[in-house]
Amino acid sequence: MLASLRRAWRVFATALAFSCFGLGCLALGLVYFPLLNLCVREPQRRVARARAMVRWVFGRFITLMRVLGLVSYELHGVERLDREGLLVLANHPTLIDVVFLLSLMRHADCVVRSGLADNPFTRGPVRAAAYIRNEGGAELLQACIASLRQGGNLMIFPEGTRSRPGEPLQMQRGAAHIATRMPCNITPVRISCMPLGLNKGRPWWQVADRPMHFNIRVDEDIAVAPFLERAAGEPALAARHLTAYLCDFFSK
Asked: The pTM is what?
């Protein structure tokens, strides 16, 4: 009986948390960001303030989930994110990985699905923060490189979507192409969650039997120069070797 009550609470609390998240994003898009556009005319300052607000709101959302008893977490090496011009790559086990990472990073840019830029709840923050739409092609690659050259911290999930439990990781080469063509080192972030919840193929209401515990570890930078040297300076070949390395790295 007690276990059933606890599960019912976690289902309700999850619905409450995500309702607050959606309404908060909607309010930002309808009120805060239009006022920001009126008060701050310089585009770079406006984007910087929008990203700072997104970071603050995402941090409050994580706090809300912790207070509701849905998550706990431990952080390791997050001081490595306190730099500029980082290419941050992370594995992607759960729905809220991006929320965690953007709440920890300053001046953060990221690649988002086009659907989020058109969704009425998330459209305001995505557009105001000038996040990069994942529409593929050479334009996406150039937009990512331009973001890094402007000193932004670019966060990408090389898998492209959440990983499926029990299946081998499948890495796309886009992130490696950015690293080898920039070129720049990679700041890797390994995310684990036990028990696993909010994962691919699992409805949000199928909650875990206890609070999800996240372990977020920012490791030492991965140097890209050795991969370019091995490929005789050819970025495409280096990206292939680097992608294989990243797949093995995050699988551990």
From this structure: 0.94
